[in-house]
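Friendly challenge for the regulars: who can give me the structure tokens for this chain first? No prize, just bragging rights.
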Amino acid sequence: MQNELRALVVKHCQTLRKEAAAIAACIDLLEPEFCGDVEPISKAIDLAHRVKGSSGSIGFRDISECARGLEFALRALFVTPHATSAEAVRDARSAWKRLKRRIDSVSPEDSSLFTATLPKNPAL
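First reply, four minutes later:
Bragging rights claimed.
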């Protein structure tokens, strides 16, 4: 069971890098002033939400928290008045950079589940 869990953690690290590339593609489409194109923002929100949940579930709490911050910053683009949208875009880009740095440095051993001790004969 421990080996299967570790394999899932390793796979998650690989998946995180793919999801980061997809988020980057969306973030790259953000203009300095939010001009109302919601498709890349919606996609980035969905991806950040997925990273938040899956990372939290598999023991990467810090990545989950960074993804939560990105999701929050991206959602703010929908409610920010146009006068402050440049600031909201900067906040979203900053949140993305924090998440990206963390994903770039992640290793399976960073997961709290990677070294978790599981019972050899779990009760059903």
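Residues 2-110 form a domain with the Four Helix Bundle (Hemerythrin (Met), subunit A) fold (CATH 1.20.120). The CA atoms of residues 70 and 94 lie 8 Å apart. Your move, everyone else.
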